[in-house]
Design goal:
With 236 residues, the chain is of the alpha/beta class. The protein folds into two domains: 3-194, Spore Coat Polysaccharide Biosynthesis Protein SpsA, Chain A (Alpha-Beta Complex); 195-236, no CATH class. Helices cover 43% and strands 20% of the residues. It has an eight-stranded mixed sheet with strand order 3-2-1-4-7-6-8-5, with helices on both faces. Helix 9 (203-218) runs antiparallel to helix 10. It is globular, with a radius of gyration of 17 Å.
Length: 236
């Protein structure tokens, strides 16, 4: 059984090689990784060149694929060229635990076709530590893309992948659909993810807007409405 790791990026030249090195170093077996697919959404820095230079000296196949901007589009693009039996979608600033590959394969062999890890931020802020603690629970309300997402290639195809109408909330939409068919498990190990967005925007300001996005979605807001809110309140 082989895993294809799909990482969407946009201007990650400063840190992407750190993640690639981590993925290779902490894997249980180099034979379990079919390839690492870095999907660039139009970076204007040296992200692509940096990855290609790094890939030259590695035994693990590392590919760079171009895509339209947007995580859903980028992850679907990566999945379309993946050769593995299992797809593992990972944000560029999230670092999976030691032997993550074996953990994923073990769950697949047990019949669990999709799932994620728990998550901790690289911050001691009490609220961010609390958010990490919540990821131990099996509720879909405690899920997010920073926890990473594994899914068999066959199931991903069956549910037609990520909904590209979502510029934000694409991970949660996928999780919602997987929960609806009872196809989700949480591995009790932790992905460590960067709190950089919280540091840039402010913990309480960003959390307020994220909660607002979730509430709007639960109340029936469209993907376009969510993106307009995100772009106005978070990115601007």
């Amino acid at each position: 059984m082989k895993i294809s790791i799909v990482i969407p990026i946009l201007n990650e030249a400063a840190s992407i090689c750190k993640l690639l090195s981590h993925l290779i170093k902490v894997a249980r077996s180099k034979h379990s990784i079919s390839e690492i697919i870095v999907v660039d959404g139009g970076s204007i820095d040296t992200s692509k060149k940096t990855v290609l230079e790094y890939a030259k000296n590695q035994n693990t196949p590392i590919k760079v694929v171009d895509s339209e901007k947007g995580r859903a589009k980028q992850m679907n693009t990566g999945a379309s060229v993946a050769t593995g039996d299992v797809l593992y979608f990972l944000h560029a600033d999230s670092f999976p635990p030691k032997y993550y590959d074996q953990d994923i394969i073990t769950e697949i062999q047990k019949g669990n076709e999709a799932g994620c890890f728990r998550m901790k931020f690289d911050s001691n802020h009490w609220w961010l530590r609390f958010l990490g603690w919540l990821t131990k629970f099996e509720s879909k309300r405690c899920r997010g893309g920073d926890q990473s997402q594994f899914i068999t290639a066959s199931l991903f195809k069956e549910i037609e992948g990520y909904d590209e109408n979502y510029i934000v909330y694409e991970d949660n939409d996928l999780v919602d659909r997987l929960f609806a068919i009872n196809k989700f498990v949480i591995i009790p190990k932790y992905v460590i993810t960067s709190a950089r967005r919280y540091r840039e925007v402010g913990v309480w300001r960003l959390q307020y807007h994220f909660l607002n996005i979730h509430m709007r979605r639960w109340l029936g807001a469209s993907s376009e409405d969510l993106y307009r809110y995100y772009k106005k309140k978070v990115v601007s």
